[in-house]
Amino acid sequence: MEYIRGLCWVLRYYYQGVPSWTWYFPHHYAPCFSDLVGLKDVEQARKFELGEPFPPLEQLVAVLPPLSAKALPPPLRTIFDSNDPKLAQFFPKKVSYDLNGAREVYKAVVLLPFIDAAVLKAACAPLVATLDAESKA
């Protein structure tokens, strides 16, 4: 069902604007077509909660690899080395790849954990509060 929601999200994004700032596809792989046969209640896939976008600095923390932490203001760089297990799980020291028959690593599926937005926002908020206006811009 989440795959169908993803298709609905993309269509609405291109034809009506962002349907949800918080929805994401919660799997690393698309389903087999046979998994989609017989789906019921597809109407539910069209319903989204708009939510709010990530502020720019939190978005960078969510998407930058730890080796690119220098692109962030110094206080936010500490998130990548956090000892808090709820936060550390999102920034693994070792990354897994599924080549799935591919020969080149750039064709692999990178098996990163999905970030819990609430945990990340809670970790970023006190650090962002210490920044001056120029660093926040």
From TrEMBL:
One of its GO terms (molecular function) is RNA binding. Gene3D superfamilies: 1.25.40.1050. GO terms for cellular component: nucleus. GO terms for biological process: nuclear-transcribed mRNA catabolic process. Residues 2-135 form the Xrn1 helical domain. InterPro entries: 5_3_exoribonuclease, Xrn1_helical. This is Xrn1 helical domain-containing protein.
